[in-house]
Amino acid sequence: MDIQMLLSLLDATIRLSTPLLLACLAGLYSERSGVFDIGLEGKMLMAAFAAGAVAAMTGSAWAGLLAALAISIMTALLQGAAAISLRGNQLIAGVAINMLAAGLTTFLGQQWFRQGGRTPQLSGEGRFGAIELPFAREIGQIPLIGPIYQELISGHYILVYVAFLAVPVTAYVLYRTRFGLRLRAVGENPKAVDTAGISVVRLRYQAVLITGLLCGFAGAYFSIAQGSGFGNNMTAGKGFIALAALIFAKWKPVPAMFTCLLFGFLDALQIRLQGARFGGIEIPVQAIQALPYVLTVVLLAGFIGKAVGPKAGGVPYTKER
Questions:
Q1: By Cβ atoms counted within 10 A, which residue in 17, 104, 209, 317 is the most buried?
Q2: Is residue 260 part of a domain?
């Protein structure tokens, strides 16, 4: 494999890992607060549809992004109301969000655009373009370092940089701020937090709001950055892979980034392996496409070790009177 092919593979890895990373960090906030969230997929799907629909109607990717953030936050609040205020089963609430998103996006897409649930193709200002970093062309002439800067670091969508910037920000918030300390505490021992005079409900809602915000970015990435419009079920289970990455990383932001990069690499690899022949035999496309999901299960089952989540995770908190 030559350097150009390797850089192309790594570039695709970064692009494909971006929505996983955003969703993984989103789940980290909610689960650290004690709210298990399997509704990441649904929030991303709702955000992707909102971004694609609004961008198609206004011709502005920024308007689409704002719509994605708003819809994702509203969806997260709906899930939060069921899981926190009404003290419902958190897993069922997440499943309900996923089912609602899958049905509602297809229905609205068909009613509004009459294209089989899809939005119109986006172009121009309707989607985000790649950003060329300063002096990318000049530095690109330098051997080895230049191509890495020009092709691997530069030339990505703005949401890619947002995703990777969110990693150190999340690490700082969780481990260096009062809010992060309280967030981690409420996921471990909400009764102690409540005894200290801190509202458990408020903290969990704040975490859910952050989750909605990050899922909004992830969903918008699918339809107005990486893609050029919304398509039915375009998130394709990425929310569940992000959840698997979160468990694999043991609810820590930096390991979560590397895990998402690993899963993004597997996804990029399967794209390049399609149509490949081994020993004169062509491997079925379906088998290659299933590779990232199979390896995800293998990695979780065989290499994760013991992953212990927040102790109060999945348990609704009832204030003692």
A1: 17
A2: no
Total number of domains in the chain: 1
Cα–Cα distance, 156 to 174 (Å, whole number)? 27
Amino acid making up residue 112: W
**Has this prediction a pTM greater than 0.90?**
yes
User: Do the domain assignments include residue 270?
Assistant: no
Backbone angles phi, psi at 156, to 5 degrees: -105, 165
Which residue intervals of 59-121 are DSSP H helices?
61-80, 90-113
Burial class (CB in 10 A: 0-12, 13-18, 19+), 107: exposed
- 210 contact partners, CB below 8 Å, separation of at least 6: 26, 29, 30
Measured between its terminal Cα atoms, the distance across the chain in Å is 66
Give the separation between CA 245 and CA 285, rounded to whole angstroms: 25
The strand ranges marked E within 183-299 are 277-278, 281-282
CA distance 60 to 68: 13
Question: How far is it, in rounded angstroms, from Cα 315 to Cα 205?
Answer: 15
Bridge partners of 278, per DSSP, are 281
pLDDT tens digit string along 224-272? 999 999 988 899 889 999 998 898 888 999 999 999 998 898 888 888 7
- Domain range holding 155? 3-128+142-236
| Structural domain contains residue 279 | no
